[in-house]
Amino acid sequence: MTLADSWEAHSRQWIEWARAPGFDSYWRYHRDQFLALVPPPGRQTVDIGCGEGRLTRHLKGLGHRIIGIDASPSLVAAAREADPSMDIRHANASALPLQDASADLAIAFMTLHDIDEMPLAVREIARVLEPGGKLCLAIVHPINSAGRFEESAADAPFVIKGDYLRPFRFADTVERDGMTMTFHSQHRPISAYFSALEQAGLLVEALREPDIPDHALNSEASRRWQRLPLFLQMRVVRPAAD
Ligand SMILES: C[S@@+](CC[C@H](N)C(=O)[O-])C[C@H]1O[C@@H](n2cnc3c(N)ncnc32)[C@H](O)[C@@H]1O
């Protein structure tokens, strides 16, 4: 089963999880930390792996002319239903249904680690960006996906039992407040992302390992995530032609 198939299989769980107000890190702090990296609206923004469209709708509200792309038919249907005026396309990120140089901004928020052919997707993003165009991305931090805390206490040891350097697929089932979600993803070392960006001719101009603000902690034990980054955010640019 591909990662895209797994996301389709869990689409109902994801819609419930993603839309519960204030429930996950997106609502509590991650979206706003990510938006600090995002340039103001320009000619055309593309949201790659838009899911049910929560960030796509928010960016539209901020004035972005936006196209959402996702490989899950059910999530595409949910995004269209939530805002029928939005241009949401069912497509694989490794074959974007967009013209060369047709966008000045691409967003890949919490998606590249969920995409099987990540280097192809990055190459496609570079193709659709105009010279000078930017890609803003957020992923599960590779140190996070490489290991786990031995227990949930604030001072629990974080242990990497397997390989950091070798990619592997994993599934993480999280249960909280009566909701369950299984996240299907691929662990890759940071160098795999930098190699994909390098091959696509994209240059990193900003990198963030966001800290969880105190007000967003939902328990004392969750302070363990103030010791290690949950997420990695970057803004990269397709260099303007000389
Ligand atoms: C964690 S969700 C993020 C959704 C959205 N960006 C958000 O933060 O609410 C990952 C998304 O990547 C999509 N995805 C996985 N593989 C894909 C692929 N090959 N092409 C396009 N989208 C893909 C999934 O369907 C899912 O919607």
If you had to describe this structure to a student in words, what would you say it looks like?
By secondary structure, this protein is an alpha/beta fold. It has one domain (3-141, 189-237): Rossmann fold, CATH 3.40.50.150. The protein has helices spanning 3-9, 11-19, 25-35, 54-61, 73-82, 118-128, 142-146, 190-199, and strands at residues 45-48, 66-70, 87-90, 103-109, 129-140, 148-149, 158-159, 168-176, 179-187, 203-208, 231-237. The strands form three sheets. Strands 3-2-1-4-5-11-10 form a seven-stranded mixed beta sheet. A two-stranded antiparallel ribbon has the order 6-7. Helix 6 runs parallel beside helix 8 (190-199). It is globular. The model has no long low-confidence stretch (mean pLDDT 96). The structure holds S-adenosylmethionine (SAM). The site of S-adenosylmethionine (SAM) has 22 residues, from helix 1 and helix 4.
Order of helices and strands: HHHEHEHEEHEHEEEEHEE
Please work out how many helical segments DSSP would assign: 8
What is the percent of helical residues?
25-40%
Shape: globular
Low-confidence stretches: none
Could you tell me the number of beta strands?
Answer: 11
Q: Which CATH C-level class is it?
A: Alpha Beta
Look at the helices and sheets and give the structural class. alpha/beta
Any idea what the CATH architecture is? Answer: 3-Layer(aba) Sandwich
Q: Briefly note the CATH topology name.
A: Rossmann fold
Most strands sheet:
7 strands, mixed
Distance between the termini: 44 Å
How many separate structural domains? Answer: 1
What do we call the CATH homologous superfamily?
A: Vaccinia Virus protein VP39
Give average pLDDT, whole number: 96
The small molecules bound here are: S-adenosylmethionine
Q: Taking Cα atoms only, what radius of gyration do you get, to the nearest Å?
A: 17 Å
The strand line-up of the biggest sheet is 3-2-1-4-5-11-10
- Please report which band the strand proportion falls in: under 5%, 5-15%, 15-25%, 25-35%, 35-45% or over 45%: 25-35%
